[in-house]
Amino acid sequence: MAVIIGVNAYHSDSAACLLVDGRLVAAAEEERFRRVKHWAGFPVEAIRYCLQSAGLRLADVDFVALNQDAKANIGRKLGFMLTKRPDLSMVLDRIKNKRERTGALDELLCAFPEDKFKGSLRPIEHHMAHLASAFCVSPFEQATVLSVDGFGDFASAAWGQGHGNSVEVEDKVYFPHSLGIFYMALTQYLGFPNWGDEYKIMGLAPYGEPRFLNEMRKIVLLQSDGTYKLDLDYFRHHKEKTEDEWDSGEPRVAALYTPKLESLLGPRRDGSAPLEQRHRDMARSVQAMYEEAFFHLLNRLHERHEMDHLALAGGCAMNSVANGKIYKHTPYKKVYIQSAAGDAGGAIGAAYAIESQINPGHVRFQMTHAYFGPEFSDQEIAQLIEEKRKDLIAAGCTIMHHTDEQALLNETAYAIAQGQVIGWFHGRMEWGPRALGNRSILGDPRRADMKDILNIKIKRRESFRPFAPSILRESVSQWFETDDDVPFMMQVYQIRENKRKLIPAVTHVDGSGRLQTVHQTTNPRYYGLIEAFRRLTDIPIVLNTSFNENEPVVCRPAEALDCFLRTKMDVLALGNWLIRRQS
């Protein structure tokens, strides 16, 4: 039996996974346990969960695979240092980071002092881990593989081909050129400074027109071979240290752009200032430039490989708007993006890179669902409810335990149809940033005011950000202009025009929806809930957003109950329990 722990550490979205004989049995992000968004550092709690879920100890582990390799691209690093002469603080910071990464084994041993680790630590180059995370769990026997992100191991993109159980890297885009840095810098310029705020630009873009696309083309320069470069006069990341000390907390990055960007585009937006049409047009232009560069590269790769399947990873693979246009703007016929395409997903990529080395003939594992996190028994939930009973009664709640699952589904579906907001917690937590029906907040997609209701009661987020539809797999082609299978909510597609008025709560201003297809085989309870809602309303869709309130998605029942009590959620479906707040 080969036991492999995969790790994403010392970067945003620290995470761990566990492979046993090539099968992914557990995976989780550290932020869910630490309760700090995008937590960076070494994922001790995620590793602990993975081992406990399989009844294993650190002594049983053969390999720990780390999705970074300080020795990767060393020639490029030295050449850059010698020719560009960056600021000394930047060089010292890189040396410090390298020392931290080489101390990963020490951190592991300190976290598990009772165990003797008999295996070995194996570093895997950052983009190789991304590529393996996409291809090695995909349904494809061969495919073009592409990773695009900010930076990792001195590169911002890599591509090649996947065959059987292995990935061959052909080429890369190296530091300091990066589509991820471009998108992050413009996100900061538009007044959204937090790590991971790029999705806000995607949500804002449909409200504008690409009036600034010509200016964007001065910033991102497309090359004849399909790659791209940045006009570095607009950026600071290659000259100065821009990352704050992350250690064991939320990542923070200083402004990546120079005053020249403001000379080109006008004054930056302060985060507290109201959004003007100029900002909406800028967001649309940023998204349009990203798509132009992304499809430029994809089309060249298709010409080169003549393959119709694409496996995609990296932080930029979270751009669900661009992903939904791949079939329209490139010849690719099938795309696979696993549920944690960003840095967290590098944990499974590193693990599968090792697995393919030690067992090249193994039967491929296919990730058809994302439910690899912690789960909790009915008895554990019952104990929590008993402990919190006084608080629940004081809050005017009624509590009911269901032994009949269909009755629970029917009652919850009826509450949704009545316009109530439901906290939905069951089964294993999702792997990746999306709530996919196990740690979700649900609402009625038919209500035009549901977005406002959710923001008033729970979310308190920007009004321009859309909410997503979860739909029964068999109904996709009737409601969307596609029949693609999108189980991980990684693609945005157009909703059919004649259906948009029926589901305004999940229809964005441009007529699109970030699709999640729900299968009976992979999540029977969530499927059953949507089917119960369909029987009531003739709508095979519910509104789905993550179960949280400006925090990481809830992991444990106690966090779900706390979120329910401090917000104005109407109903909490906690395993087999229904808790109702009386109006």
- Structural class by SSE content: alpha/beta
Percent of residues in helices: 25-40%
State the major sheet.
9 strands, mixed
Widest beta sheet: strand line-up: 13-21-20-14-15-19-16-18-17
Please describe what this structure looks like.
With 583 residues, the chain is α/β, with parallel strands linked by helices. It has a nine-stranded mixed beta sheet with strand order 13-21-20-14-15-19-16-18-17, with helices on both faces. The chain has a five-stranded mixed beta sheet with strand order 3-2-1-4-5, sandwiched between helices. The longest helix has 29 residues, at 277-305.
Please tag this protein with its features.
583 residues, 21 helices, five-stranded mixed beta sheet, globular
Layout of SSEs?
Elements: E1 3-8, E2 15-20, E3 23-29, H1 31-34, H2 44-53, E4 63-66, H3 74-84, H4 88-102, H5 104-111, E5 120-123, H6 126-135, E6 142-152, E7 155-163, E8 166-174, H7 179-189, H8 198-204, H9 213-219, E9 220-222, E10 228-230, H10 259-265, H11 277-305, E11 309-313, H12 320-323, H13 326-329, E12 334-336, H14 346-358, H15 378-387, H16 389-394, E13 397-401, H17 405-417, E14 422-425, E15 439-443, H18 450-459, E16 468-472, H19 476-479, E17 491-494, E18 512-518, H20 524-537, E19 541-546, H21 557-566, E20 571-574, E21 577-581
Parallel strand pairs: 1-4, 4-5, 6-11, 11-12, 14-20, 16-18
Antiparallel strand pairs: 1-2, 2-3, 6-7, 7-8, 9-10, 13-21, 14-15, 15-19, 16-19, 17-18, 20-21
Helix pairs in contact: 6-14, 7-11, 17-20
